[in-house]
Specification:
The structure is a homodimer of 541-residue chains.
Chain A (H helix, E strand, L loop, with lengths): L27 H11 L23 H11 L4 E2 L2 H6 L6 H8 L9 E3 L4 H14 L1 E6 L18 E6 L6 E5 L4 E4 L5 H9 L3 E2 L12 H7 L6 H4 L2 H4 E8 L2 E5 L11 H5 L8 E8 L1 E2 L3 E9 L2 H13 L6 E5 L1 H11 L7 E9 L1 H17 L3 E4 L1 H8 L4 H10 L2 E11 L3 H18 L5 E6 L2 E2 L2 E11 L5 H18 L18 H5 L1 H14 L20
Parallel strand pairs in A: 2-4, 3-4
Antiparallel strand pairs in A: 1-2, 5-6, 6-10, 7-11, 8-9, 8-10, 12-14, 12-15, 13-14, 13-17, 16-19, 17-19, 18-19
Chain lengths: 541, 541
């Protein structure tokens, strides 16, 4: 059974986040905080105009462009300035720094829009022969450089935009699975599923623009993944077109048939091939949703309460806990005094009686663990602003503020050590550079054996040295994560930015195993060069 | 923190299952069923004596044996008849057919017992240089030929018995994880964990003899995996020694760092390397356990009830549903009439009030779906006999009965079609060979998107053609599984027996990717030849 996608595709700012016509202003109180807290001078910078972005001439030779046109048809190979600039970078802080100043040097030579898996296959075959690098592009929302059009050793590079591949098929209401095209954005997927009373329950902060294919390729997690599961838990089958052939993995509830090839392709970030459809486990739309606030005397106390909840029989769907700094800043921004040192949001979704039972049982556990109930208001406020972070980043960057996030996860027994190590690495690096900043953190996902930590930090930009400043903090934080036993990424993926640390995460022999598989599936080395796998020392990449 | 293993290691019959001194007899009523139902003639065969087993001379040259002795020490390289015979085969039906008649042609040239990961590494390094095949051996309970000592293109083959690697370390009561050595058998692991009030909750039918390393290497599931999760859900980290180096994957609650290398090594069946330790998610020992029986008018009605339960908010720990044939035979064996067409067992474990709540909620759902409650008696009877299947197989083989099991899984929407296809393939193959048999099935594991099917069948052996008879049924059943969209194995793994169908399961490009990974990690091709990966047509294996 097939469902028609009705939600329209929406444009996104090429230099930032969201609707290109939306412009937010900071409240005077927030502006004052930036002045006094970070030392920004109040001047405002605006991004250059699109026409002023410097893009190199396309390196795509005319016969190659013609060959691509023959595969995907007229209008599906574009190399105009606007299209190239939109595909020149993802949405990480360093990407936006470059784009705002008009640095479009990284733009792809063209953008190709296949409509079917067969067209994808023919594009990869053609590009393998012609040695044209191919960068799969979903929503373009990567914050780790995952969609950066790097040529590698190829003659040219094209972005492969999957926006036309948005079929919703095989709606299996008995098995609660559905097959989705990779180009479907979050709202398109959810509104199509809602027509059948279903939901995927996957709501990353990038939900409005990120795509199904991107979620799977980057092993993403959403704000309700504590309850609904990470995207890797939701994938039951997929199809992936590689330059050496298509891999078809039909939906399977469970299997013992060797290494899990689904789990090899989930998180593969386009370096083996292009995910052309995914079968995902869905649920019936919850009848009731309840989000509520709790306060704790300390981050550690709150974390212990969440640990007790997650290790017991009471299932939570949403669980977040802000540290002191994040709780204070949140209160300041909303103009209401913080009710306690650390704010937690707990969320329950499902049948009304089940939601009420779990809520009541959780309340008992949380009270015993020292929590103070704050009622529904903080939960409603959180839900309302759950996708707002990246909009605020644009406004802060207008005012000369570096603002970035990074995330990790660790077993419960090492979580607070990891928290202190990363916070201290970020703070001290910023201080050493003469730009002391604000470092905040929240727990965003719970597991029986551990939790994630999501850090946000802000500091005055070092004019002309924005990228070096960012790299210094990023490197210090990632070194601290690795040193304290955290994972280099909990849900942002590896991309370009974390690739140098992959061998720390999985060991050199695993990296070699992945390289060997890539060489077999992508012998010409055209698939998303420079991502995921660390550069080979001494090799020209 | 470390826990001492107190549970003693127990010997197992070299020609069958369990304690070598145990011998069961069939009840007269059961014997009569075999006569009338399968046409067996009542004669009894006994296995040959150990001394009469035909084993070829060891091909291990003296300098190679000496080299291995230098790595693992005196007494840890054995090539006596008893040791070689115990390691000559797993516990599948064709293995036992061969062993009972004294066919020890497949015995390894020697058995090596490393004590540490470093010794494993040195053995692999030495064997790579000397081109000696290495077959990792845990409990030796594979029913798919996973431990068969195949030389491949090597000069000799050794079994690598991990019985000395039984450390229980890093007991992390905050994160609820523990690190286990690969050689720990089920009772050894559970009794060590119980000292800390913990349980892994992993109870395959082979529990008494199977090992932790074997579970992970074969991606196993246990009888309570509906609630506790499959072994793949329980692994949070592991170490694997490959001929190209050690892969160390520290425990991680969740990560987005690329393809999941843990999931490439879980289920890798020793073809890349040897799993030398595993960090597993554990739970607190349940205070209460409740198993109860239900009857349904048909297999389909029962399956629908289980689907409703599993897709709703009520968590089950154990869920099994026998079809009409299995229900009838079970009643006949126990001497009590069947209470209905199809018997189901539902199990709940945890805190007493939580068990009671879930039991009561589940009862409502099951009654509405047409189930009739049978109380605790069938649950208690099931629990008592939960590990008995393989003992009964020995007794049936004594009486000239072929008895075998095989398992698959599929989405709910295709489950009954798969059930009929496999049942019909087994029945008609047996009939065509003039040995009509009994075919039974139960659902053993539930997932929101599907379930497993576990088939058992029995027929009169064709004397002198036992292996051909078995292969004919196995091939027909597996072809039917593939044709009806099932997985080739839900929890027995691929091994030797399912390898020819792997490309049907994951596609030829995936097989090539796994081959490339193997070539990089095991360049000399010494690791468990002939398992998991299908033979290359035209190549000498």
């Amino acid at each position: 059974m097939t469902v028609t996608v009705t939600e329209p595709w929406k444009p996104i700012k090429w230099w930032g986040w969201g609707d290109p016509t939306r412009h937010d202003e900071l409240a005077p109180a927030a502006m004052e905080m930036l002045r006094s807290g970070l030392g920004v001078d109040g001047r405002k910078s605006v991004p250059v105009r699109l026409e002023a972005v410097r893009t190199p001439p396309s390196r795509l030779a005319a016969p190659i462009k013609q060959g691509l046109l023959e595969v995907v048809g007229d209008n599906a190979v574009r190399d105009d300035q606007g299209t190239r600039v939109v595909h020149a970078a993802g949405k990480g802080y360093p990407d936006l720094v470059r784009m705002r100043t008009g640095d479009g040097e990284g733009a792809p030579d063209a953008v190709v829009y296949p409509a079917t898996a067969i067209e994808v296959w023919r594009v990869l075959e053609f590009c393998s022969r012609q040695r044209v690098a191919v960068v799969p592009f979903g929503g373009g929302t990567s914050v780790v450089g995952g969609v950066e059009p790097i040529r590698g050793s190829c003659a040219a590079v094209v972005s492969l935009d999957l926006a036309r591949m948005i079929a919703v098929t095989n709606v299996d209401e008995r098995s609660l699975t559905v097959t989705l095209g990779p180009g479907l954005r979050g709202p398109q997927a959810e509104s199509a599923l809602a027509q059948k009373g279903l939901t995927l329950g996957h709501f990353p902060q990038s939900f409005e623009y990120a795509t199904v294919g991107g979620w799977v390729a980057t092993r993403s997690a959403g704000q309700a993944s504590t309850g609904y599961g990470r995207i890797d838990d939701l994938v039951s089958g997929l199809r992936c077109v590689t330059p050496s052939g298509e891999i078809v993995l039909p939906p399977r509830p469970g299997t013992a048939a060797g290494p899990d090839v689904v789990e090899l392709l989930v998180g593969s970030e386009g370096v083996f091939g292009v995910i052309t459809e995914v079968t995902l486990r869905v649920r019936r739309l919850p009848e009731a949703r309840h989000y509520e606030g709790w306060s704790f005397a300390s981050f550690d106390q709150g974390a212990e309460a969440l640990r007790h909840l997650e290790q017991g029989p009471i299932a939570l769907d949403v669980a977040r806990l802000s540290d002191e700094a994040e709780t204070q800043l949140g209160a300041a921004i909303s103009g209401t005094p913080a009710a306690g040192a650390c704010l937690a949001i707990l969320g329950f979704e499902g049948a009304p009686d089940d939601v009420e039972r779990r809520r009541a049982q959780a309340s008992e556990v949380v009270r015993t663990a020292g929590g103070t109930p704050l009622g529904e208001a903080p939960g409603i406020a959180w839900e309302k602003r759950r996708f707002e972070g990246p909009y605020l980043r644009d406004t802060l960057m207008d005012h000369g503020v570096m603002v970035e996030t990074l995330e990790t996860a660790a077993p419960w027994s090492g979580l607070m050590r990891l928290y202190e190590a990363v916070r201290s690495a970020i703070s001290s690096t910023l201080e050493l550079r003469g730009t002391p900043g604000i470092v905040m953190c929240h727990i965003s996902h719970l597991y029986p054996d551990g939790a994630s930590l999501y850090f946000s930090f802000a500091a005055r930009q070092q004019p002309g040295m924005e990228l070096q400043q960012w790299q210094a903090v990023k490197s210090a934080a990632t070194d601290a994560i690795v040193g304290a036993g955290g994972t280099i990424t909990h849900h942002h993926a590896v991309g370009r930015d974390h690739a140098p640390w992959l061998a720390h995460e999985i060991g050199p022999a695993s990296v070699e195993a992945l390289r060997a598989m890539k060489a077999r599936l992508d012998p010409a080395g055209i698939m998303n060069p420079g991502k995921l796998l660390p550069p080979i020392v001494g090799a020209s990449v």
